[in-house]
Recover the amino acids of this structure.
């Protein structure tokens, strides 16, 4: 606990994804006071052309009441 899934447009860089996972892990450790070994981070790349159908319509729109940070689009 916790497990975080990040969906984003393709970055083309494993370095960027690794850095993002590391930074998210640090924030969770500091805010939720959990050890690094308890945290997992997955990154799913979704093409911009597929975003609305695959992410917004399926994950964001039906869960607006659960979002602590809503998108501005």
């Amino acid at each position: 606990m916790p497990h975080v899934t990040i969906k984003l447009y393709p970055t083309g860089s494993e370095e960027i994804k690794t850095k993002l996972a590391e930074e998210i892990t640090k924030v969770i450790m500091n805010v939720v006071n959990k050890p690094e070994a308890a945290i997992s981070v997955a990154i799913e790349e979704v093409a911009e052309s597929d975003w609305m159908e695959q992410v917004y319509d399926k994950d964001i729109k039906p869960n607006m009441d659960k979002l602590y940070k809503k998108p501005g689009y």
Observations:
- Residues 9 and 51 are 8 Å apart (CA to CA).
- Residues 3-66 form a domain with the Macrophage Migration Inhibitory Factor fold (CATH 3.30.429.10).
- Strands lie at 3-8, 40-45.
- The first strand starts at residue 3 and ends at 8.
